[in-house]
């Protein structure tokens, strides 16, 4: 009976020590986990700060933020990661298709007129402003032309090459005049003209004219004689030289005359008005701006898809790849991560860590209780065998 009592005491002692050990082990691990985050701020008694306050993570939050920043930049958001994930041929094709679609949808096939695009760019009354500017330019240029043409002689104003060309044409003009004169004199119209001239001459001489008419006989024969003599005169070499010399002299005189004298009666204002009206009519800027890009460029989609969009995307991807590492350095992602972590409330960090590792922390608490229970049992055995001795 006594041995049974001892055995029961021994079992109860082991169980009690195992319970106490498990309780201490579990509570200790639980407290250690809590002390990673709690308390969130330092606690003071007067000016004396309590040990282990604040918790480990709040106390080392700055170091944690720095290490997280380095981890992100060195192992997570690296240039190679961006190249492998973003700058791929598949993404380049998708970007090309997306950009081409947006260009066609928003620009090439848009219902917006050129006026609408100009208004979006902040440009208003372009047609009126251009027409006013055009009229001002035409006025200025025409006034310059007028001043140039009415200042000086023809020889000074007209280009030399034009004057030389006119002078070279004088023989041709002389021959043309003589040929036309010959054709006219030898024509029925010329015969009628000579007959009228002769009759008018004879009538103007009165009785003497009648005597001359009787002397020469029939006027038709007289007209034929005059025609023949006129044709001989025209075909004579001296006639050509005489007419050529006269035209050449008159042209030389003309060259010395002021252009203002020749153009004194010219309607400059009418010319200015006509030129400006013609330019405005041909320009028709208002109606031209009231059309869409597709009206002027119907093949725009094909051209941009072949020549513009692929080159833009290729250029963008190449530049992105070249500047990627430098750009990431300029972004200073480690500092951004550090700043963000520094702004986190400690409770957010606690929820973040516990949200990921809550199950593992519970297992650590259970493991602490299990180890504490085992240690309690070992202590009980040690106490039991020590008492036996």
Q: How would you characterize the overall build of this protein?
A:
By secondary structure, this protein is mainly alpha-helical. It is 83% helix and 1% strand. The chain has 20 helices and two strands. The chain has helices spanning 2-35, 56-59, 61-76, 79-85, 89-108, 114-120, 126-149, 154-157, 160-185, 188-204, 207-216, 219-235, 237-256, 259-262, 268-283, 285-289, 293-296, 300-331, 333-343, 346-388; strands spanning 44-45, 48-49. The chain has a two-stranded antiparallel sheet. A hairpin with a 2-residue loop joins β1 (44-45) and β2 (48-49). α9 (160-185) runs antiparallel to α13 (237-256) and α10 packs across α12 (219-235). The radius of gyration is 58 Å and the shape is rod-shaped. It starts with a helix and ends with a helix.
Give the tags:
two-stranded antiparallel ribbon, single chain, 389 residues, mainly alpha
The Rg value, from CA coordinates, equals 58 Å
Number of strands: 2
Cα shape: rod-shaped
Distance between the termini: 22 Å
**Amount of beta strand:** under 5%
Give helix and strand order, one letter per element, not per position: HEEHHHHHHHHHHHHHHHHHHH
Overall pLDDT metric: 79
Number of helices: 20
Strand order of the largest sheet: 1-2
Show unreliable segments.
Answer: none
Largest beta-sheet details: 2 strands, antiparallel
Helicity level: over 70%
Secondary-structure-derived class: mainly alpha
């Amino acid at each position: 009976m006594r041995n049974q009592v001892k055995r029961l005491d021994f079992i109860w002692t082991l169980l009690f020590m195992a319970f106490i050990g498990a309780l201490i082990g579990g509570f200790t691990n639980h407290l250690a986990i809590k002390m990673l985050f709690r308390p969130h701020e330092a606690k003071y008694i007067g000016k004396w700060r309590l040990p282990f306050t604040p918790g480990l993570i709040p106390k080392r939050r700055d170091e944690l933020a720095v290490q997280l920043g380095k981890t992100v930049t060195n192992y997570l958001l690296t240039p190679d990661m961006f190249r492998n994930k973003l700058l791929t041929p598949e993404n380049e094709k998708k970007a090309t298709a997306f950009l081409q679609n947006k260009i066609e949808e928003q620009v090439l096939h848009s219902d917006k007129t050129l006026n609408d695009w100009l208004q979006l760019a902040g440009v208003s009354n372009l047609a009126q402003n251009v027409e006013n500017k055009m009229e001002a330019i035409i006025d200025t240029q025409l006034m310059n032309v007028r001043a140039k043409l009415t200042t000086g002689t023809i020889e000074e104003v007209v280009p030399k090459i034009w004057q030389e060309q006119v002078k070279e044409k004088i023989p041709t003009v002389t021959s043309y005049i003589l040929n036309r004169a010959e054709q006219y004199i030898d024509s029925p119209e010329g015969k009628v003209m000579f007959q009228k001239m002769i009759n008018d001459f004879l009538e103007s001489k009165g009785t003497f004219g009648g005597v001359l008419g009787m002397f020469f006989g029939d006027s038709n024969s007289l007209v034929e004689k005059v025609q023949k003599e006129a044709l001989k005169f025209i075909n004579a070499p001296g006639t050509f030289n005489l007419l050529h010399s006269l035209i050449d002299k008159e042209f030389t005189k003309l060259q010395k005359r002021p252009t203002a004298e020749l153009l004194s009666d010219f309607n400059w204002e009418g010319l200015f008005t006509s030129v400006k009206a013609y330019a405005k009519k041909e320009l028709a800027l208002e109606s031209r701006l009231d059309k869409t890009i597709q009206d002027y460029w119907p093949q725009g989609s094909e051209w941009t898809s072949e020549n513009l969009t692929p080159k833009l995307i290729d250029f963008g991807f190449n530049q992105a790849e070249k500047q990627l590492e430098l750009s990431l350095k300029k972004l200073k992602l480690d500092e951004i991560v550090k700043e963000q972590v520094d702004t986190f409330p400690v409770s957010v960090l606690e929820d973040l860590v516990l949200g990921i590792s809550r199950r593992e922390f519970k297992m650590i608490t259970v493991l602490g209780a299990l180890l504490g229970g085992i240690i309690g049992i070992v202590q009980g055995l040690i106490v039991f065998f020590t008492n036996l001795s």
